[in-house]
Amino acid sequence: MTMEKLTEGFNLIEGPVWDNKLGLVFSDAVDGGVFAVSATGDVTAIFEHRKGIGGIARHEQDGLVVSGRNVAFKPFGEGETNIMLDRDVAAAVVGFNDLTTDARGRIYAGSLSSSPLVVGERTTATGSLYLIDLDGTSRVVAEDIRLNNGLAFSPDGATLYHSDSIRRAVYQYAVEDNGTLGAKRIFAKVEVGGPDGLVVSADGRVWVALAGGGHGVIVFNADGSESHFLKIPQPMCTSVCFGGDDMHTLFIVSGSEGMGTDKAGAVYRTRTDVPGLAVPLARVALR
Question: Among 23, 56, 62, 141, fewest CB within 10 Å belongs to which?
């Protein structure tokens, strides 16, 4: 498969999500801002300034849900930010990283006990996985995650996959009808880099970005066995996203680490043999 660089010049690209109108939407977690890149490589700024965004979801109310110091809805154009889930430093919740939505539009977001960008700030404290329900209430549905990262559902919605980058593990949980998760079980372990953002294709394979020297995306079959590996020419591979008119385009995003500059973050794309699963709109009520 041919790997094409679509755009570059960012510090640390995170949170890619496909939008049929905007194209690939993503954040620069270090330098700040949310951007969109078209199929022809044209980049536009959607939101400026906000830093630390590790996860993005589209919302039915014409805006985006973003993580960072909190989980918040930001409308396109004019309008106020709506905080859905706030940090609680006293409880070792300093912010939130990756997030995703289920078929009903509920939001799952992973908390951070320290900054994911500064290694020296990491502690032995662990983060939790929160569910934000349709009425706006939230609760913890999983615990003991050293560094919360990628989240995505199986094609039937019965399994949630979840990266813990420090433990180099991708976990899986059985999903109950009310959104509660079953016991955390190992789906796959990685030996190089740490599992970061992940997505699932229509055939049930799990596509996992390998950050911290991983140089690409490792693909696992639904039974946890390794399928194949997609390499990019950068060590810091942070996340993946399916998109395009037929959902057969895989976008791979990266950070600048290991490239000798802080403006090497790039978006790559390649065609895949199977389509990916579209991430549903968030439908959580706004306050």
Answer: 62
Sequence ranges of the domains in the chain: 4-271
Q: Which CATH number fits domain 4-271: 2.120.10.30, 2.115.10.20, 2.40.30.10, 3.40.50.850?
A: 2.120.10.30
Place of tokens 């890149």: 37
CA angle 218, 110, 201 (to 5 degrees): 35
248 vs 53, 200, 238, CA distance in Å? 26, 12, 20
Determine the pLDDT at residue 77: 86
Token pair belonging to 142: 């999983």
Please give the backbone phi and psi of residue 89, each rounded to the nearest 5 degrees, phi first. -60, -35
pLDDT in tens, 248-267: 999 999 999 999 999 999 99
